[in-house]
Amino acid sequence: PPEPRLQGAPGHRVSPAQELLEMRAEAEAALNGYAWVDEKAGLARIPIDEAMKLVAERGLGSPGVQPRREGSSREASTPPRRTIREKRP
């Protein structure tokens, strides 16, 4: 690559290959481990596989919004959409 090649500069402690391995290991640990994000607020990070299972079971929702129950009609709460042929006011 063209200059500057910073990995070979004095003071750079790790080779680019080793730096990449460390970065990937950190990302893997974050995706597959448990950790507190904000312990006071009760927010924790969980493994991605566990999170996907929970989303599959519960669905995605916004805080304070109740999930839709089976048998409820979405059309009743959604205004009708205009078509291209309708005249606009």
Walk me through what this model shows.
With 89 residues, this protein is of the alpha+beta class. It is 31% helix and 8% strand. It contains two helices and two strands. The protein has helices at 16-32, 48-58, and strands spanning 35-38, 43-45. A two-stranded antiparallel ribbon has the order 1-2. The protein is elongated. The N and C termini lie far apart (59 Å). The model has no long low-confidence stretch (mean pLDDT 75).
Oligomer designation: single chain
Helix content, binned percent: 25-40%
The DSSP helix count reads: 2
Helix/strand/pairing category = alpha+beta
Low-pLDDT segments, ≥5 res: none
* Radius of gyration, in angstroms, nearest whole number: 25 Å
Largest sheet: 2 strands, antiparallel
Strand order of the largest sheet: 1-2
Bin the strand percentage: 5-15%
Number of strands: 2
The rough form would be described as elongated
Describe how the helices and strands are arranged.
Elements: H1 16-32, E1 35-38, E2 43-45, H2 48-58
Antiparallel strand pairs: 1-2
Comma- or semicolon-separated keywords:
89 residues, alpha+beta, two-stranded antiparallel sheet, 2 helices, 2 strands, 31% helix
Summarize the structure.
This protein has helices at residues 16-32, 48-58; strands at 35-38, 43-45. By secondary structure, it is α+β, with helices and mostly antiparallel strands.
